[in-house]
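A quick aside before the break. I want you to see a complete sequence-to-structure record at least once, exactly as it would be stored in a machine-readable document. Don't worry about memorizing anything.
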Amino acid sequence: MNRLQRILGSALVAGGVAAMASMALAADCAPSKWGADDEIGAANYVDSNQVLMAAKLIKKGETHPLGIVVDPMRCGRI
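That is the input. The structure line, written in tokens, reads:
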């Protein structure tokens, strides 16, 4: 068995384990109180009054990035 076959075999096994684990976790989840098609979960609790209260907390007009850019071109690696 060459290196590529071992790598592919390991990837398939890891993918299968991950899929089985996610199915097991999903089986333990209760149905969403907002329906089967809901995609935002607890964000359903956020209403316009809460947005207005949060806006009153703003002291500066600064923004901060919350994500990590995953782009090999920006890292100079390709």
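Two observations worth writing down. DSSP finds three helices and no strands in the chain. The helical segments are 3-28, 48-55, 72-75. We'll return to this after the break.
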